[in-house]
Amino acid sequence: MKIHVLLGAWAACTAVLILTFLLRPVEARPPASRGEDTDAGAAGPKFSAEAAAIFGKRCTACHTYGRGIKVGPDLKGVTERRKRDWLVRFIHGSSIVIKSGDPTATALFAEFKQQRMPDWIDLSDPQINNILDYIAIGGPDIKPQDEHDAASAAPADIERGRQLFYGLTALRYGSQACATCHTVQGGMRGGSLGPDLTQVYFRYQDKALTYFLRQPCFQWQMGESTDVYLTPKESFAIKSFLRNVALQNRAALSLFEKTRGGGSQ
User: From start to end of the chain, where are the E strands?
Assistant: First the structure.
């Protein structure tokens, strides 16, 4: 009878301790460095959001970016093929440039079956230059760093992901390190409140894991109003680390199976 009472009391105390740990405010960890992330949410090349919107609304109706000819020419590399001042004039008023006898304009007019581009006289020179800048740095191919496939990660990205995972480098927005609740095989000791993440990369695949990492897995601090958990750079690094862990684990299991098979013969 006493044993049951003691076990019940122990279980109740354990539950209270866990609940207290989960609900307590979390202080920053002094030993961990703040890291090198300075992005506030958008990684990669900087460009005008207005320029991207105009490109998507007006240009894509007749042009592709890197997918070949549509109604008009492919715009990928157009800022290298044509001079900037010519492009500004042509976008402003293609009809004027064609009528002037400009050899490039008349050649394009003939090549594309006399389909003339609209005169975008409502766009200012700065707006057109911003659109051309957007095209020059990658246009529609630009995407946040966390959407890059982890297979493209360099060793430095994987190492940075390891440091972020274990809290050796602090996360920019003050979130707890993954290892507070999770662990991976073959690494440093982690927590046990959450599942083992050794195979999480193969289980979810790159794209799904990217979207998962954009959401806090637990609201650590009561009253927090921010929804930001990781920067795109941090997310990419952690994703790259988890992919590397999964690959190493798969290789170790394969070697174990071969060794065991060879020993049984």
Answer: none
| Cα–Cα distances in angstroms (integers) from residue 226 to residues 56, 114, 173, 175, 222, in the given order | 30, 53, 9, 11, 11
- Predicted TM-score (pTM) of this structure: 0.53
Domain that holds residue 122: 49-141
Integer Cα distance of 55 and 74 in angstroms: 13
Tell me, what's the pLDDT at 230? 86
CB distance 201 to 210 below 8 Å: no
Residues 91 and 184 in one domain: no
Question: Domain check: are 101 and 189 in the same one?
Answer: no
For CA atoms 40, 44, 47, 50, give the dihedral sign.
Answer: negative
Residue whose token pair is 């000819």: 69
Tokens of 31: 């030993």
Residue ending a domain, among 141, 160, 179, is 141
DSSP characters over 219-262? --STT--------HHHHHHHHHHHHHHHHHHHHHHHHHHHHHHH
Q: Are residues 78 and 128 in the same domain?
A: yes
CATH number of the domain that 162 lies in?
1.10.760.10
Reported as a pLDDT band with limits 50, 70 and 90, residue 167 is: very high
pLDDT of 110 over the 70 cut: yes
